[in-house]
Structures are given as C-alpha cells and as structure tokens.
Design goal:
- Its main location: membrane.
- One of its GO terms (cellular component) is plasma membrane.
- The protein has about 220 residues and is mainly alpha-helical.
- About 35% of the residues are buried.
- Helix 7 packs antiparallel against helix 9 and helix 8 packs antiparallel against helix 9.
- Helices cover about 85% and strands about 0% of the residues.
Length: about 220
C-alpha cells in the first residue's frame, strides 16, 4: 500500500514536471532571480555608501525606499506595466525596488556604527578618510550587509514568483497554469519546488552571513 502510494506520488511529480516544463521554468526563474538580486545588491550597497557619506540624504532616501515597501507587490507590478509592458522586465524592476531597502539600510547602519577604536587605529596608521571607509568600515560592515542581502533573497524570490501573473515565465507561470486549470497536482508540486528553492537560497545566504560574522565579528 505504501509502495503503491509512493509510486503514484512519484508519477504525479513526473507528470507535472514534464507537462509544465519545470526544468525550463526553473532556469527562467533563476535567471530573473539572480539578475534582480545582482542589481539589488549593487544599487543597495552604492545607496548605503552614498547616504553614509552624505548624512543629510539618509533620511529622505531611506524613507522613500520605505514608501516603496508599503506598496503591495501585485499593485507595484501593475503600476509598472504601462512603463515596461508585460513579461520579465516589470518583474525584475519590481524585485529590485523591493530589495534595495534592506541592503541600503544595513549598509548605511553598518558603516555608521563601526566601533570607534577601529577608526582611531586606522587614523593613527595614517589612513585617509576614503581609505578608512573602504578598508575598515566597509569590511567590518559586511556581516550586516549580508543580513540585508538575505532578506532581499526572500523578497526577490516572492516577487519573481508573482511575475507569473504578468506573463514573466518562470515557476510562477506553472503555478498560474495550475490555478487556472484547478490542477492541484501542478499547484502542489510547483509550490513545493518554489519553496524548496527559496529554502536552499536562503540557506546559502545564511552560510555566507555566518562566514562573514566569523571573520569580521558580530559587533553590528
């Protein structure tokens, strides 16, 4: 009985995987995910550094990013449609907009809160303010920045999955097919696969964060 149930379960997974082309959908999904995450990290870190170096900008910039976070993800996708059309472009842009805040905020916080004794030692060695920023403050902020990136991983995975609603492809498209056809097998298998990918990516981000904490400390 148990073996028969396992066989049926395996057969259902194979059916869904083949009919919904989940291998191709996974590649599409991860492409959008990593593309969006890369630019989120790039923009978020640069924003954090700029707001640290121009403290008057910190409040307005971070508050503006907070406003973006209050917009529901589906609503943001809809708002971007007239500009970028349907497909992957608005999905990637929405993912980036949602993910900038935790990275920028943690970059700014990390740079601003490096213990004073480290700065005094660097200044005593003759480092310029720019060298202190990039050789002392930034490396010591990496554990906190990694925490922001870990949050961005979750945001990005969620928005990319929702991209299936606007023909972005990826695993969200397979989920949308399952919902439209009321195919519970497709919904469950695809949903479980998305969840597993999210857990794996979060786990990788968590390992990187732990490595950075072990190297640079957990003062932040």
């Amino acid at each position: 009985m148990i073996i028969e149930g396992l066989n049926d379960f395996t057969a259902e997974i194979i059916r869904v995987w083949n009919t919904q082309m989940l291998s191709l959908r996974t590649v599409e999904h991860l492409y959008m995910f990593f593309f969006a995450l890369f630019f989120s990290i790039l923009i978020g870190v640069v924003t954090g550094v700029l707001t640290y170096r121009n403290q008057k900008l910190a409040g307005p910039v971070l508050n503006s990013l907070n406003v973006v976070e209050t917009v529901p993800d589906v609503a943001l996708l809809v708002l971007l449609l007239p500009i970028f059309g349907i497909g992957a472009a608005p999905t990637i842009v929405a993912s980036i907009l949602y993910s900038i805040l935790p990275i920028a905020r943690d970059t700014y916080t990390g740079l601003s809160n490096v213990p004073r004794e480290y700065i005094e030692i660097a200044e005593a060695l003759g480092l310029t303010p720019r060298e202190v920023l990039f050789k002392v403050r930034f490396p010591l902020s990496l554990p906190l920045i990694a925490g922001g990136v870990r949050i961005a991983v979750v945001f990005t995975m969620g928005v990319v999955t929702l991209g299936g609603l606007i023909a972005a492809g990826g695993l969200g498209a397979a989920l949308q097919n399952g919902i439209q056809l009321y195919d519970m097998g497709t919904i469950l298998v695809t949903g479980a696969w998305v969840g597993l990918l999210a857990v794996l990516l979060d786990g990788i981000a968590g390992i990187i964060e732990k490595i950075l904490k072990a190297r640079y400390g957990t003062w932040s």
